[in-house]
Design a protein that fits this description.
Layout lengths: L3 E3 L16 H14 L4 H8 L3 H8 L7 H11 L3 H5 L8 E3 L6 E4 L6 E4 L9 E8 L16 E8 L2 E5 L2 E5 L4 E5 L4 E5 L5 E8 L5
Helix pairs in contact: 1-3, 2-4
Length: about 210
């Protein structure tokens, strides 16, 4: 039995729109997750901050949403951005993800890039990601995650300023940080050149 699986899902965003060929899959995924949680369009709209009309258009494959809209939908559905965009796979003993096949999401406005380094196993709440923030840029305020989400990061290059609530933490290369995700936070490049850091996100276990 061959336990070697090459991960083939590669998603690049060269514009603020989710690529057209992904629209149908995204709409189906949103509708499936919403139905599984017995959420109405209005309820998901309240959870995500995305209008009912927009959600309806996404589900009917009539709208290519921006990455920001997809991120808000993911939060409202209780999944990560990569979980919503990617294809969950059954767990394998070994998974190889070639660099050229990574799932990558890039914000064209800020240049911030997120690269998924781990496979999207169904039902497994751990993600390993690489983040690149250009000089002078930042994520802006990020909403709290669901209670129980833990985030671990280590800075590889540049200087990173992490704001957790009202507290700021200045990190140099090699510095590591842990925080519970259910607090407003943001990440800013506080030095010269591109800031690179790796993050592990651990989701809460189901009760």
């Amino acid at each position: 039995r061959n336990h070697l699986l090459r991960y083939k899902c590669a998603v690049k965003y060269a514009s603020p729109m989710v690529e057209t060929e992904l629209t149908a899959r995204l709409g189906q995924r949103v509708q499936r997750l919403r139905s599984a949680q017995a959420l109405t369009l209005d309820e998901l709209a309240r959870r995500s901050g995305v209008s009912r009309a927009m959600i309806s258009k996404v589900e009917r494959n009539e709208k290519n949403p921006t990455v920001g809209v997809v991120a808000r939908l993911a939060k409202g559905l209780g999944v990560s951005l990569f979980e919503l965009l990617g294809e969950g796979t059954a767990r394998q003993a070994v998974v190889v993800i070639p660099k050229a096949k990574r799932m990558v999401v890039r914000d064209p406005e800020t240049g911030i890039e997120r690269q998924l380094l781990s496979p999207t196993f169904e039902g497994r709440g751990v993600e390993l990601m690489a983040h690149l923030i250009p000089e002078g840029r930042g994520t802006g305020p990020l909403p709290p995650a669901q209670p129980g989400v833990e985030k671990y990061l280590v800075v590889e290059a540049g200087r990173l300023r992490v704001t957790l609530g009202q507290a700021e933490h200045a990190l140099e290369p090699g510095d590591a940080l842990f925080f519970e995700g259910d607090v407003p936070h943001r990440f800013d490049n506080a030095g010269r050149g591109t800031c690179r850091y790796t993050m592990v996100v651990v989701k809460a276990r189901a009760p």
